[in-house]
Amino acid sequence: MLFNCLSLIIGVLYIIVGIFVITTKTFAVKLDPIMANFLGVLLCLYGLFRIARAIIRLRKKNNNGR
User: Fold this and answer.
1) What phi and psi values does residue 62 have, to the nearest 5 degrees?
2) Buried-most residue among 20, 21, 24, 31 (CB within 10 A)?
């Protein structure tokens, strides 16, 4: 249960960092706009993946608990 909650939180944080990279074009250093967009989209997709994986695990746990 704790792993799934942490995965949800970390997924949201990855999405926030991805949006930050896209809007500011920085990630500890100044980035080229193309690389910043690529990295930002990649971070957002990974955040969505973590959220989806946590939701799938929570649903499986709830179905097995019945």
Assistant:
1) -65, -35
2) 21
